[in-house]
């Protein structure tokens, strides 16, 4: 069994066709057929049923495909990490979710560059708008070196630290009856259309936790809702009357500005569309959006400690409470 045989099997299984797999791999159909036959002979197992069109995996083939795909993905990750370890890039590639860009990220990057200039050492920074979920694979592939995210991830290749919690505010149309109320409660917002914009849902272990909250003096246990905004309402035993799902945060705020509903956003976004939108504070202290920083466990880009230092400098200037951490 060798990598050529395994890659040939994966290509054939994915495309369910020798001819399509030949075009993708650059091998001839006879070569692919020979590699697959050698693999099956070595294992003593029939992996693909050649008598069906499109080609079908046998039961053993499905099991082998699931397991070997994970192994090959891990091998690709190891190869990429080894190459980066031997020749680290001078550019720091930073992934971020849009809500972080509206917050302190620009100030952090400016502080980072200023910090390095004092040491007569230039630093190149490349910023990439990428969702929390996509950041994990981007870290493994080397597309980014570090990511600012709103969601916790559990992955054997990834380490992360919690930078801070940011309070949510409610975004309401300027003409809304509650637009001038400086202290909002979720229960008072439940009869509105809630606009949902997150593309990443909460991990199951977080949504299924029995974290309890208090409303009107009563403890409420969160249900298993994984959509982030609905999860916040569920913590208080509340289900919004109506919801609308949109593609991103900007669209959500556009609908709020048009009077089509309300939404909750991190406080750093309350400078967006202020002519049409009223942002008001929520009284619930635990209705927050975390900010995580994550990178690979086995390869930390040499500029990442500088980025973390710049982040904490900005927090100190802004009077933001945080607990200093570092990557190992």
Q: How is the quaternary structure best described?
A: single chain
SSE order in H/E notation?
HHHEEHEHHEHEEEHEHEEHEHEEEH
Shape field = globular
Mean pLDDT: 88
Alpha-carbon Rg, integer: 25 Å
Verbal overview:
The chain has 328 residues and is an alpha/beta fold. It has 12 helices and 14 strands. It has 3 domains: 84 residues, Winged helix-like DNA-binding domain superfamily/Winged helix DNA-binding domain (Arc Repressor Mutant, subunit A), CATH 1.10.10; 102 residues, Periplasmic binding protein-like II (D-Maltodextrin-Binding Protein, domain 2), CATH 3.40.190; 125 residues, D-Maltodextrin-Binding Protein, domain 2. α1 crosses α4. Strands 3, 4, 5, 6, 7, 12, 13 and 14 form an 8-stranded mixed beta sheet that branches. A two-stranded antiparallel ribbon has the order 1-2. A two-stranded parallel sheet has the order 8-11. This is LysR family transcriptional regulator. InterPro entries: LysR_HTH_N, LysR_subst-bd, WH-like_DNA-bd_sf, WH_DNA-bd_sf.
């Amino acid at each position: 069994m060798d990598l050529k045989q395994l890659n040939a099997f994966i290509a054939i299984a994915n495309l369910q066709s020798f001819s399509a797999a030949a075009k993708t791999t650059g091998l001839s159909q006879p070569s692919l057929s020979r590699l697959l036959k050698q693999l099956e002979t070595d294992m003593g197992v029939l992996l693909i049923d050649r008598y069906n069109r499109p080609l079908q995996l046998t039961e053993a083939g499905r099991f082998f495909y699931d397991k070997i795909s994970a192994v090959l993905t891990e091998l690709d990750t190891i190869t990429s990490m080894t190459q980066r370890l031997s020749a680290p890039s001078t550019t720091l590639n930073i992934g971020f979710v849009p809500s972080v860009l509206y917050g302190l990220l620009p100030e952090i990057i400016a502080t980072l560059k200023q910090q390095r200039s004092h040491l007569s050492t230039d630093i190149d920074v490349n910023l990439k708008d990428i969702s929390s979920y996509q950041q994990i694979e981007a870290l493994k592939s080397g597309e980014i070196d570090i990511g600012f995210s709103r969601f916790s991830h559990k992955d054997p290749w990834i380490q992360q630290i919690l930078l801070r919690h940011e309070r949510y505010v409610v975004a309401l149309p300027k003409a809304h009856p509650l637009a001038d109320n400086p202290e909002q409660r979720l229960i008072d917002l439940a009869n509105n259309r809630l606009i949902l914009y997150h593309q990443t849902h909460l991990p199951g272990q977080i949504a299924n936790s029995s974290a309890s909250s208090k409303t009107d003096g009563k403890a409420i246990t969160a249900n298993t809702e994984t959509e982030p905004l609905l999860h916040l309402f569920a913590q208080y035993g509340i289900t919004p009357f109506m919801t609308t799902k949109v593609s991103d945060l900007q669209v959500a705020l556009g609908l709020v500005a048009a009077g089509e509903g309300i939404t909750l956003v991190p406080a750093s976004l309350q400078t967006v569309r202020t002519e049409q939108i009223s942002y008001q504070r929520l009284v619930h202290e635990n209705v927050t959006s975390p900010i995580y920083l994550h990178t690979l466990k086995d390869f930390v880009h040499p500029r990442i400690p500088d980025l973390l230092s710049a982040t904490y400098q900005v927090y100190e200037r802004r009077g933001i409470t945080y607990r200093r951490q570092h990557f190992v």
